[in-house]
Amino acid sequence: MALPTAGTGAEQDQFWPLPKFYFSVDIGDFTDLPFQEVSGLDVETEVIEYRHGNSPNHSPIKMPGLMKYGDVTLKKGVFADDNQFFDWISKISLNTYERLTVVIRLLDETATPRMTWTLTNAFPQKVTPTDMNSQSSEAGIETMVLTHEGMTSEVA
Fold it and tell me: For the chain, how many structural domains are there in total?
């Protein structure tokens, strides 16, 4: 891992962190979808605690358990004649929905993917249309929450 070193700003150009505002999202066959925000790329390990009865320690042993992945939230603007979120979730009927691969890429200034997260067997869990307020002059934003069965992360 490259760490910043002392010196002038010109010498440190390679050590600037990637900005988080330049990214692309692919869902199934749909590529480079225009989302405003992506959040929830969480992964954690459940903890298994165990203590046998004759242990001299008065605390349990902690071991790693199953991996647990967070739900991913996607937000995008509301556009006329665009009902993609509702079309996707309305295709779910019992367990007959085609699960999709979702690829999220964090891009550098040349649009080259530098970090890539791939969600496996994803499907929409929740769709929330925009809130409406007659006193507001903000763009309408709708939200879709995806659940999935696993995630990989790659660094370019």
Answer: 1
